[in-house]
Design brief:
The complex is a heterodimer of chains A (about 425) and B (about 120). Chain A has about 425 residues and is α+β, with helices and mostly antiparallel strands. Chain A has helices at about 25-30, 35-45, 90-95, 135-145, 160, 180-190, 205-220, 230-240, 245-250, 295-300, 305-320, 325-330, 335-340, 375-395, 395-400, 410-420, 425-435, and strands spanning about 10-15, 20-25, 50-55, 70-75, 80-85, 100-105, 115-120, 120-125, 150-155, 170, 190-195, 250-255, 265-270, 285-290. Helix content of chain A is about 35%, strand content about 15%. In chain A, a hairpin with a 2-residue loop joins β7 and β8 (about 120-125). Classes of the chains: A alpha+beta (about 425), B alpha+beta (about 120).
Chain lengths: ~425, ~120
C-alpha cells in the first residue's frame, strides 16, 4: 500500500526475540480500510499468541483535521473482551512517522524489555534500567538515553509491572484513555513500554486535491461556534455532568491539543507553580496534563480540592493506574488515602455500550447534537459508530464527538483521494459492523 | 510581507509544521518545515513556535516574540530547545511563494489563527 502508509506491518515475538516485517497489502486496506479495522484483523490473525496490536488510522498524520490518533487493540484484562484504546497526544502520529502502520506484539519476554521503534527500525531492548521505575522516570530515562526530548512513549508504571487489573498504559508522562487495564497486558508480557521516533515521509496519491479538500473542511470546522472554547472544563459542562469551571480555574495553566486537533482537549493544571506564569517555569514538576473528564468529575464529587485532584492525577500517571478506578473503587476521599489504595483496588467500572470502546470518551455528542433525539439507546449506538469511524480513520476521538463537519462522507473522500482506492460507504458500513461485532 | 505568531493563541497542534512540510516535500512529513511547534518542555507545559526566515530565527514564546539574526550568539538563559538545532539547517521561509491559491500554508492551516500574514 503505497499511499497514506509506511507500507509496513511489524511483527514482534517477545518470546523468541524475532522481529519480522510484512507488507501492508492494498487488498487489506480495500477490505478493512485501516486503524481499528486492521488492528482487529491482525488481533484475530495472531489470536493464539495473545497479541497486543498497535496501529494508526488511514488518515493519521495528514492534513485532514484531527487526524491525530492511533489505537491499541488487545484483550482487556479488566473486561475479558477485545477492546480498543485510542492513542492520543502526539504519540499516534509519531507511530506512523517512525516507520510502521501496525505493530503486532506476540508472546512474553523472558526478562523485562521495551521496544525502540525509530525510522523503520525496531529493536527489542533490555528494560533492566527502567523496570521498577515509574512512568515519568522511564520516559525521561529513554529520552535522555536517545538524546531526544521529542521521543514519544507508551509506558507502564509499577501498577502494570504488578499486573493490576487497573493498570493503565500511559502516553509520555500522562494518563491515557485506557480503561481496559492494558497496562496489565503489557506487564504480563514483561513489556515495559514502546518508544517511537521517526522522520518518515508519507506519500499521498493525489496530494494536491487531498490538501485542498482538507483546507476546505478545516474552514467549515472553524466556522463552528464551539471552537471559541478550550479545555477540559468546557467539555464537562457541555455534557452536563458537572461544572468544573470554577473549581479548576485557580489551577488552570494553558490548554493544548493533540496533533492538528482544532479543539484543545488537554488542560494543564499547575499545583506547584503559579498557573498564571507566562514564561517557562523553573519548577521541575509544576503539575499535570489531563484530558480525563470523568476522573476529574469523580474527584470533585468525592470532595477533593482541585489542587489535590491534580496531585492525585499526577501520582496515578506516575504509577500507571487508572485514576477513575482509584477514586470510584477505593471509596477514599483524600489524596493520601487514595494513593495508599493503589495496590488494593477491587471491583469494576461501568462500561458503555458493548464495552469495546473506552468510556473515557463521553457516550454522547459534545457541543453539537448531531441530529440525535436525546434517547439514550440512540446515543449509545451513535457513539459506538462514531468511535469506530474515528478509530478506522485515526480521528481524535473526543473531537469526533464534537464536530459534525468531520463526516463519514468526507473521510471516505479523502481516504480515496489519498490512496487511489475506491473506498465507499458500503465498505465503511461493513468495517464498522465488523469492528463493533 | 511577513508572518507573525501569537504564541498565546497557539495550542501546540503542529498543523503549521505539517502544512509547511507539505509545501516543501509534496507529501506528509515534519522534517523539512521551516516553522516548528516547539514542545520539548512538556512537563513545564511551555510551548510556542519557531520560524526560520532567510536571515532571522523567530522564536514565538508565550512571553513574546524574540527575533535573532542567524549567526549571532544566543542568550544562554533563553535556549529554545533541542529541536532548534536542526532549524538552522533548514531552508528559510519563502512565504510559500509558489502556493498561489493558499498563501503561506502555516497561516492557512492554523486552526487557532495564531499565525497571520502581515505587511
Amino acid at each position: 500500500m503505497e499511499y497514506l502508509s509506511t507500507e509496513k506491518i511489524l511483527i514482534i515475538d517477545l518470546a523468541s526475540s524475532a522481529v519480522e516485517e510484512e507488507e501492508l497489502e492494498e487488498s487489506l486496506v480495500s477490505e478493512k480500510i485501516g486503524g481499528i479495522g486492521i488492528t482487529k484483523y491482525l488481533y484475530e490473525k495472531f489470536e493464539n499468541d495473545d497479541p497486543i496490536v498497535i496501529g494508526c488510522g488511514l488518515l493519521t498524520g495528514t492534513t485532514y483535521p484531527a487526524s491525530a490518533s492511533g489505537v491499541i487493540t488487545a484483550k482487556s484484562p479488566a473486561t475479558g473482551k477485545l477492546a480498543h484504546c485510542p492513542i492520543t497526544y502526539k504519540v499516534g502520529v509519531e507511530i506512523k512517522f517512525s516507520g510502521f502502520d501496525y505493530i503486532v506484539i506476540k508472546g512474553s519476554a523472558a526478562t523485562p524489555s521495551y521496544l525502540w521503534i525509530h525510522d523503520g527500525v525496531a529493536d527489542i531492548c533490555d528494560a533492566a534500567d527502567i523496570w521498577g521505575k515509574d512512568v515519568w522516570e522511564s520516559t525521561e530515562f529513554l529520552r535522555e538515553l536517545v538524546g531526544d526530548d521529542l521521543l514519544q512513549t507508551i509506558m507502564i508504571g509499577p501498577a502494570g509491572e504488578k499486573q493490576s487489573d487497573y493498570a493503565q498504559v500511559c502516553y509520555n508522562h500522562w494518563n491515557s484513555p485506557d480503561r481496559f487495564g492494558f497496562g496489565k497486558a503489557f506487564g504480563t508480557k514483561n513489556l515495559k513500554g514502546v518508544a517511537f521516533r521517526g522522520m518518515g515521509l508519507i506519500e499521498c496519491a493525489d496530494v494536491e486535491d487531498y490538501v485542498s479538500r482538507s483546507l476546505e473542511i478545516l474552514k467549515e470546522v472553524k466556522a463552528n461556534d464551539f471552537l471559541s472554547k478550550q479545555g477540559i472544563a468546557e467539555l464537562a459542562s457541555a455534557i452536563g455532568e458537572e461544572n468544573l469551571t470554577d473549581w479548576l480555574a485557580p489551577i488552570t495553566h494553558r490548554h493544548s491539543a493533540d496533533y492538528f486537533t482544532p479543539y484543545a482537549t488537554i488542560t494543564a493544571l499547575f499545583m506547584d507553580e503559579d498557573p498564571k506564569i507566562v514564561e517557562e517555569t523553573k519548577v521541575a514538576e509544576p503539575g499535570i496534563l489531563t484530558s480525563d473528564i470523568y476522573a476529574l468529575i469523580a474527584l470533585k464529587k468525592a470532595g477533593f480540592s482541585a489542587e489535590d485532584a491534580g496531585r492525585l492525577l499526577r501520582e496515578t500517571a506516575k504509577y500507571g493506574i487508572d485514576p477513575l478506578a482509584v477514586v470510584e473503587l477505593s471509596g477514599k476521599t483524600s489524596l493520601d488515602d487514595c494513593t495508599a489504595a493503589f495496590d488494593g483496588l477491587s471491583g469494576s467500572l461501568a462500561l458503555k455500550g458493548k464495552g469495546i470502546f473506552s468510556s473515557w470518551c463521553p457516550a454522547r455528542p459534545i457541543f453539537n447534537d448531531f441530529g440525535l433525539s436525546g434517547d439514550d439507546a440512540e446515543a449509545i449506538a451513535w457513539w459506538e459508530r462514531r468511535q469506530a469511524v474515528a478509530g478506522i480513520f485515526g480521528i481524535q476521538p473526543l473531537f469526533a464527538l464534537m464536530c459534525p463537519e468531520l463526516s463519514e462522507e468526507n473521510m471516505l473522500e479523502l481516504a480515496s483521494l489519498g490512496t487511489e482506492i475506491d473506498l465507499d460507504q458500503d465498505l465503511l458500513d461493513a468495517v464498522v459492523a465488523y469492528v463493533c461485532d | 510581507m511577513g508572518i507573525t505568531i501569537d504564541a498565546l493563541k497557539c495550542t501546540n497542534c503542529m498543523a503549521c509544521e505539517m502544512a509547511c512540510s507539505y509545501h516543501r516535500d509534496d507529501g506528509f512529513a515534519f522534517l523539512s518545515a521551516c516553522i516548528v511547534a516547539y514542545r520539548a518542555r512538556e512537563k513545564q507545559d511551555y510551548f510556542g513556535v519557531m520560524l526560520k526566515e532567510e536571515e532571522n530565527l523567530v522564536v514565538a514564546r508565550p512571553e513574546g516574540l524574540e527575533i535573532s539574526r542567524i549567526g549571532e550568539e544566543q542568550d544562554p538563559d533563553k535556549e529554545a530547545d533541542a529541536s532548534a538545532k536542526p532549524m538552522l539547517l533548514r531552508e528559510g521561509c519563502d512565504l510559500c511563494e509558489d502556493m498561489d491559491d493558499y498563501g503561506p500554508m502555516c497561516v492557512a492551516f492554523c486552526p487557532q489563527d495564531a499565525i497571520t500574514l502581515v505587511d
